[in-house]
From TrEMBL:
Domain of life of the native organism: Eukaryota
Transmembrane annotation, as ranges: 72-91, 103-120, 151-170, 218-238, 250-273
Protein name: Uncharacterized protein
Keywords in alphabetical order: Membrane, Transmembrane, Transmembrane helix
Amino acid sequence: MCLILGLNAIVGQGFKRFIWRKRPYQFQPPRAFLLEVAIQQQRSSSFTSRVVTTGTTMAYALLMHSRNMTLLSLWAIALLVLAIYLATSVSRVHFGLIYPSDCLLSLIPIVLIMLLYTLINSRLSKGDPVPLTNPLTLNNYYFSELATHKFWLTLSIGTIIFIGLTSYPIEFWRKTLFMFGTLLGYMLFRQLNLSPSEGNGQKKIEIGTLIGKGPLQLVVYTYLVLNFMVIFVVNTLLGRRTGHLLSIIIRTVFFLAIVAETASVLTAVRLIAVQ
């Protein structure tokens, strides 16, 4: 997820940041009581479509996690990704937020992100396999990595870069809170329903093995939904009531705290599920 998220931030938003185009509704003269909103919206660019790019590439990343690819499954993935691309494009054009040409030109960052994701992911998967005998082993492996110096150094550098790219005057990724809202469904599905394990000497994806079945899964799912809803609401309020740099710092710390809390809850649930 971090890989496809980073590629969307750098490649997808890069086109949108440096190639400016007014949205369709910005040419309409605003009424007096909408003047302030209209002035704020003048900073919004329609090229390229962030929703179309992110939605299509996220679907591709999720579907490509299957290990045993057949020709039929590749065609099915291609058709599903194309359907998501067309659906998001039609919805954005229908609401008057972008032009049809923006959707067509969004294919440039989409294809570039997919190629980079496939290349980098294939190279990363060639490393030493992680011992994935069960969710408990998987959990112990990752939490042992949390104690290493390399992890905290990477986390610190990543946080500094995140704050820098979203601060004035760079503002590389201005709508971070909306992007996290777009990723909500993807992140929850992956955390709750996809668990890598070993089978016949190869890693594969098993559905529903991470936290088990029944009421326990529903409780944890509801908990995570509420957590990410709180993140979205707090980010929105911070963006309106505080300075830009202070807002970015607070929302970054808040987001990391929520992630740590969620990880601890998932740890407890996994321990219960495997007993």
